Amino acid sequence: MNIALVKLSSIGDVVHALPVAAALRASLPQAHLTWIVERREAAVLRGNAALSEIVPVDTRGWRRVRTVLSIAEATGALVALGRHLRASRFDVAIDLQGLVKSGVITAATRAPLRIGFVAAHCRESASALFTNQRVSPAASARHIVDRYLSLVEPLGVRPRTVEFPLPTDSAAEARVDEFLARAGLKPRDRLVVLNPGAGRADKRWPIAHFQGLARRLIDDAGATVLVIWGPNEFGEARAIVDMDPAGRATLAPPTNLDELLAVLRRASVVVAGDTGPLHLAAALGTPCVGLYGPTSAERNGPYGQADRARAALDGTMASLGVEAVFRSVAEILPR
Question: What range does the domain containing 98 cover?
């Protein structure tokens, strides 16, 4: 069986879909399994033993075309993608994204069986027009990971375990160990990693709250604090570290995906909003405290750690108090 998985972005969403590939490989060991993914998120899939092929696309770049040259390049890339999908002769395509763009790519595979969610469970209901077997997840499938896994049920796949295979790079692991040693930080020894960033402004906990949490963790819990950051987040991370003139909070260096994973593996607890680093940490089995406002902790919380998510009753991140988050972290810090 030749199967295409269409899950383009974002990092957290791709992480949530990893168990689908693992379940298919365990149940259909002879299947040829291809994952179609955005170029930026393809790094999450590197070395994934469940996959036979990774097909990176750049729909973000296609949407930004302005010049004649860029239009020509995007057109060429689209033509090449269509040719590759047709040549692959897929038997099954599974749209895990539920967007029109993922639906179009799913249809472009020309697979006779194209599986997706019913319109009510798609992020864009029109994407259901591109599939021909539509799944309505069971009421018990509250988390998005379990909803994704419902899409393999038409193939007779019933996963016994939920697996999140993630890449490991020994050089990146060594670089992170060297950084922590220079900073005087001991891995997994009451090391709390704070991530202030998020893809949307309304999913970010206020920096003043992060500053207050860092101060409580250092002064009252005897923890060490490391602040990680991504593109365009340096200023916010720096502001958290600067709240302590004694320099007891540490700013992480810039990290690529492998280095970020190495940091998350060494944390005692990770505190973050509904964003990629939180879901990577949960997939690694690192204890997490997720901070939720406009998004659902039940649907998108750190998988397997739903009881550790803190959700704002009014849907605004600012209403999540420092004290409640501090107590959640303190409860799971090693004694």
Answer: 2-155
Judge if 177 and 150 occupy the same domain: no
For the whole model, what pTM was predicted? 0.95
* Total of domains in the chain: 2
Q: Enter the tokens of residue 201.
A: 């402004």
CA distance 50 to 303: 20
Taking CA atoms, 232 is separated from 223, 229, 235, 254, in Å, by 27, 8, 8, 11
- Each residue's pLDDT, cut to its tens digit, for the chain (335 residues) gives 999 999 999 999 999 999 999 999 999 999 999 999 999 999 999 999 999 999 999 987 766 666 666 666 666 778 889 899 999 999 999 999 999 999 999 999 999 999 999 999 999 999 999 999 999 999 999 999 999 999 999 999 999 899 999 999 999 999 999 999 999 999 988 999 999 999 999 999 999 999 999 999 999 999 999 999 999 999 999 999 999 888 889 999 999 999 999 999 999 999 999 999 999 999 999 999 999 999 999 999 999 998 899 999 999 999 999 999 999 999 999 88
